[in-house]
Every structure is written in structure tokens, then in C-alpha cells.
């Protein structure tokens, strides 16, 4: 029973990892096979048939490998996600309706019925848009041929709207500014002030 509960939890996490990393549709996750994923050590290369990569962030690769290692030996087909019922694991692969419920099965969200399997694909595109990537990158990542859908994610990105609001109301910009300050032992500033800055990166080079 403990093994089955662990498998159910791993199914949930692996579904989230692959679904968001690859902006996967529900049917793409349903039809995913063990042969579609290549473990190259530092990452997982997945083909659905478009290619996406899961890097070793946190314990994502460990969770996937653990799930794969617990796969029952009697399963003859190659489908990645298996169906669990009444405390038992069967060789029956997970169907589209069940897959659509997996992303929200362990999440304590309000209006959980409003979330479907497609939320993983939308979340992936939204994360990219909020990160400031261009439309072409979003299109390639999600496999969209038209720019219309990708443009919608960029236009509706809260991060982008926040940047625009700051530019309009505060006058700040998002352009990168590089400032080099040479400091010696006899000339160490007591303080350095920065104003109206977001996403600031400090690079400290120490020359001995």
C-alpha cells in the first residue's frame, strides 16, 4: 500500500514536471512513452515529437528516476503513465480523462474544478512570457504555428504589464546598465545607493 501511495504521488509530480517543462497538452502526456525520454545524466531529453529538456533543478530528475524504477515488470506496453485503482497498479495506461484530473488531484486550490490538464500548458507559456522571452521562443517551445496565441500570453503577462506600468508611471526602464567601480584598500566607499531598480545583479571581482 505504501508503494502504491508513493507511485500515485510520483505520477502527480512527474506529470507536473513534464507538463510544465514541455508545455504539454493532455493527449501528449497520455501518449508519452518511456522510449520518448532519454536520460543523459544531467537532463532528460523528451520528444513528443517536438523536443524539450528537463534540467536538474531541485530534485526533478530524482523524482522521475524514482518513478521509473518502481514501474511494475509485468507491464508490456511502453506508455509512461499507468493507472492505479483500489490500491493496485495495473498495466492499463492512464487515459485522457484521468490525466486531465492529475494536475489538480493533490492541489488545495479554490475552484479546483476550473483547472484541467491544459493548465500545465498554459502555465508553461505564462512562465516564459513572465520571464521576458520573445514570441518566437514561446511559439517554438509550445509548438504553435501561429503567433496569435503566443502574443496573447505576452500581452497578458502580469510581469510585462508591471514593467510597462513602471515605465509609464515611474519612468524606470528595463535596460541593462553596467557600472564599474575600482576600489582599493585606501579608497573603500562607506555606502553605495541605488534607486528605482529592479532585478539588480551585482558582480564582485576581487583582485589580489
Automatic annotation (TrEMBL):
Residues 20-157 form the Tyr recombinase domain. Gene3D superfamilies: Intergrase catalytic core (1.10.443.10). Keywords: DNA recombination, DNA-binding, Signal. Residues 1-23 form the signal peptide. InterPro entries: DNA_brk_join_enz (IPR011010), Integrase-like_cat_sf (IPR013762), Integrase_catalytic (IPR002104), Tyrosine_recombinase_XerCD (IPR050090). It comes from the Eukaryota. The keyword DNA-binding applies. This is Tyr recombinase domain-containing protein. It comes from Molorchus minor.
